[in-house]
Task: structure prediction
Amino acid sequence: MQKLLIKGGKKLSGSISISGSKNATLPILASTIFSKRITLSNVPMVKDIFTMAQLLEFIGLKIFLNKKNNSLKIFNKKRNLNTLAPYKLVKTMRAGILVLGPLLAKYRSAKISLPGGCAIGTRPVDLHLFALKKLGAKFKIKNGYIFATAKSGLKGNKINFPKISVGATENAVLAGFWAKGRTVLTNCAIEPEIIDLINFLKKLGGKIKVVKRKIVIDGVNTVKNISYRIMFDRIELGTYMIAGALAGNKLILNKVDPKIIKTEIKFLKKMGVKLLIKKDKVVLTKSKNLRSISLKTNPYPGFPTDLQAQMMVLMTKAKGVSKIQETIFENRFMHVPELRRMGAIIKINKNIAEIHGPTRLSGAEIMATDLRASVCLVLAGISAENRTIINRIYHLDRGYSNLEKKLRKCKATIRRI
Ligand code: EPZ
Result:
């Protein structure tokens, strides 16, 4: 089993190019079920993308991956695809559920494995099914699979989501893209990755409008062959911004659009983090005397749950009591016991974490539990005294492209053993 070994206390300086967004690429890949010939650039070369590519190949698409220039070519030549998403692929990557909408819309049936729970929460898919039912789909759950049919095809409808969900919004947008007539979605998630999916679908030939939390889609039945550049990964950017705030001398983060991360910038500035915002880059300089703050995770444009764990590490360095209220997932404080082993003083009361600072973190052997918890432990290791060993780092490879290489380039001592 691979581990990460980090020698803490090194100051970071240099520049990092932020990769393309994993969470934007995944639904865009699912949407290639509608397409014929697509080229995607700025694709992050991470495990979840490889798993989604494997799933699409299983379904019958041809995928050519160019790891050197971060691009993917997708050919969809078969008239009839295999409409099955098997357990072995969906269990390792929940985004597999995103092929449900496209398969149902185009092929009128699908058999998709139910993803099951994961480390951060139970993560049901009831809202995905609720939306697709409104478009005319019928479902049966048997042997751990969703058997979905839409005998006479999906038809546009009005769907008001009872709760905001990124994945359910994406599945509904994908289904509405090919459904007959107009689909109107309200109380939608409007994460930048969803806007990227919509921009991709529009280039493909889609007729889609977004007004606040409302998405209006007029279904189409033809598509163009296109090339598309995936947006930058705002969570990767946020992660390295926090690395810079924790241990940076001067850290330059390139190939980004800072307008998308206004909320993260606001909270970091409130803590006293020194950052300079340029058109397509963020520059971090040495931050001193960090202040405690309180924040709540929320759907976009709120503070992202995917940056909560990393922010907690920074809060251990701030003077006073900081608070984080996690409102998206019910079990997203799995990193706390590991941070405590490194000396952090964190109290948990239901979904609120109270972080007492400033504390000195000291290296320890620790265990990663999910993607963002893993990277938070890397940040803790970088800012801690002595040596940190992180176990179960396969979680990191699901979503961070070239993490060690990028950090080593900025003078961190980190290696895989
Ligand atoms: C997406 O997951 C992201 N994944 C997650 O990123 C991210 O944490 C999450 O959105 C929230 O921003 C991808 O984009 C691939 P949700 P998703 O549906 O779509 C509940 C990462 O680290 N819910 O918005 O699964 C759900 O349990 C990952 O990169 C239902 O109740 O999230 C949660 O409490 C982890 N029923 C809340 O809604 C449903 O049918 C929000 O989940 C669906 C969701």
